[in-house]
Amino acid sequence: MVPFSQNTWYWFCQAAGWALYYLFGIGMTGIFVPDFSYRFFISWGVITIVLFAVSNLHRKWLKRKAILVQPAWTIIRKLLISNFLLAVLAQVIITPIIVLII
Fold first, then answer.
1. What's the pTM?
2. pLDDT tens-place string over residues 22-81
3. Cα 3 to chain centroid, rounded
């Protein structure tokens, strides 16, 4: 049996995690939204794809800048700032799309 590379594990975990996120979102919407329709499949798909892309951009930035080999306080500070900025970016992308779909 050939062990998986770190890159293979990364993509496997990304795909599994975001697929579970999508399914959980669809499930919760189906439970709590009385007029559930195909639009929710599309909107959750858009949300999931945007967040998937943003998380991959974040990983590339972390690797390119070698953030995770810096001192602990520097890592924490840069991760807090970058996560905040990426959350804002994701919402700026997602919100207009969701408004158009729903």
1. 0.82
2. 999 999 988 988 888 888 898 899 999 999 999 999 999 999 999 889 999 999 999 999
3. 26
User: Is 64:5 a contact under the CB 8 Å cutoff?
Assistant: no
Mutual angle of helices 38-64 and 6-32, in 10-degree steps: 150
Which residues contact residue 96 at a Cβ distance below 8 angstroms, ignoring those fewer than 6 apart? none
Q: Tokens 């499949």 — which residue? A: 41
Q: CA-CA distance, 15 to 81, in Å (whole number)?
A: 25
Tell me how far apart the alpha carbons of residues 54 and 49 are, in angstroms, rounded to a whole number: 9
Contact 94, 46 (CB under 8 A): yes
